[in-house]
Amino acid sequence: MHTGEKPYESSDCGKTFTQKSRLNIHQKIHTGERQHVCSECGKAFNQKSILSVHQRTHTGEKPHRCNDCGKAFTSKSRFREHQRTHTGEKPCVCTECGKACNGRSNFHKHQITHTRERPLVCHKCGKAFLRKSELTTHQGTHVGEKPYECCDCGKLFSKKPQLKVHQRIHTGERPYVCSECGKAFNNRSNFNKHQATQTRDSAYRCSYSVKGFTKKSIPNPSAYL
User: Fold this and answer.
1) What are phi and psi of 9, to 5 degrees?
2) Any idea of the CA torsion for 48, 53, 59, 62, to the nearest 10 degrees?
3) Rounded CA separation 111/117 (Å)
4) What confidence tens digit (pLDDT) does each residue in 56-67 have?
5) Does the global pTM surpass 0.70?
């Protein structure tokens, strides 16, 4: 163990280990054996430690808390990746383009951009996606599924961004503010429409008053004296 020797080799992929117990755990990846089953949802895992982390999604337990910002995590690996956002450490470097990532999951997602691999396939139409969230959203278009529900009124939406915009009706949040008149809007489309009217109305603005005109034939300035 101290010499770095790894005498235990996987017959499937050639990966070597310092301990036989480590090899046995690894072999379950190849055999597909998943003997550790979650009693809540039935999902199975090949390691007890992974099951323990998974069960926290049901209990809500997040034992790993960041001292810098207070954010908490269910797994130690996610916690370590998060800490690197504060330290700036990016140990995973892409050999294709040199881009560095702060964790293995982000690094894997980046590598797929080079290989063009899209491993998640819709069983309805065969369309492939890079991320599970993209596949889930797409699948909703086939069945009319609307998994995102407003906790205030119960209205359902097929996409999470749609729910976020809708919830502003209840919260009163209006993040889009017109720099011309100060009027605020809860969604970008209404904000853009308003800005278009502001641009049009202010094309010919009277220098003697705040009134704007859409045509160049404005009244004689003496009318405001």
Assistant:
1) -115, 140
2) 150
3) 9
4) 888 889 998 999
5) no
